[in-house]
Automatic annotation (TrEMBL):
It is a peripheral membrane protein. Keywords: ATP-binding, Cell membrane, Membrane, Nucleotide-binding, Transport. It is found in: Cell membrane. This is ABC transporter ATP-binding protein. Residues 7-255 form the ABC transporter domain. Transmembrane segments: none annotated. One of its GO terms (molecular function) is ATP binding. InterPro entries: AAA+_ATPase, ABC_Ni/Peptide_Import, ABC_transporter-like_ATP-bd, ABC_transporter-like_CS, Oligopep_ABC_C, P-loop_NTPase. CDD domains: ABC_NikE_OppD_transporters. Belongs to the ABC transporter superfamily. NCBIfam families: oligo_HPY. It comes from Sphaerimonospora cavernae.
Amino acid sequence: AGPFLSVRDLSVEFSTEDGIVHAVDGLSFDLEKGTTLGIVGESGSGKSVTNLTILGLHDPDHTKIGGEIWLEDRELLGADRATMEKLRGNRIAMIFQDPLTALSPFHTIGRQIGEVYRKHRGASKKESRERAIEMLSRVGIPQPATRVDHYPHEFSGGMRQRAMIAMALVCDPDLVIADEPTTALDVTVQAQILDLLKELQQQSGTAIILITHDLGVVANTADDVLVMYAGRAVERGTVREVLREPRHPYTWGLLSSMPRLTSSVDVPLEPVRGTPPSLLNPPPGCPFHPRCDYPELAGPELCRTQRPELSPGTGHSDACYLTLRQKTDIRAQIKDQV
Ligand code: SF4
Ligand code: MG
């Protein structure tokens, strides 16, 4: 059998009034059950679009999609609306940054969690309510049998996030996509929520895609990392590989803007200068070249005109023309200067 989830050469373009946005370009990755893939990048790097596409939530009238997305033996991009609707909430679930986009203010938490269970499992009202209480208890909400009848506004921010996770997990999905699930929360609650996701993963073998701009979140939660820049994957590897031996100049920049990591990682202490490119008109060659300090070393003509690619397969790889030796030397030099 192949990987549990396999994204192959995915491209996503939408037409806007200003032209065509190349949101995702040539993206490939695999995800196994029971593991977490962190997708990291600045806003506009294509990470959220990728996941909306996996969920089939893109607007088909304005979106052009290429490539393939395989969930076990089912190809999702060719699936019809009804099939995707059946998969969403049941086998694939989504956790959003803002629980209020997922929770309606007009219905009790218990009814909303129960509704998902009823829809996909054909459970009775009573069963659904019991399941909602069980889920609230699993995500650590105190007095779940009372809380089940409360409305979202009666919950704190952290509890709403937990309730949303309870709703996402009510049908024991095989794949959970969490898009910046903790960004709006304070650090303590953030850590609790990430621990909770890990715990639930250990219990049920869920595969998780964790989308974030924060490499610190990935360091503590993910098994593998994909760094995205301007709609493309620029580095891929295990968390250990990418954090200990980051190879792409953009990853160096991302790491250096993380003060809690830089003490153990020898990277330039400069955040990435400049701004992400417009996806209406992405730069030719290496998409990072306008912000990169090293084209002279790698070959400026190459960097400006030819697109570097990740190696196929699954090992640690980055899309940059610098040799491994050059990367090691640059990182050593920078370390000496500090
Ligand atoms: Fe920089 Fe060139 Fe490497 Fe791109 S390919 S990151 S421009 S050195
Ligand atoms: Mg986003």
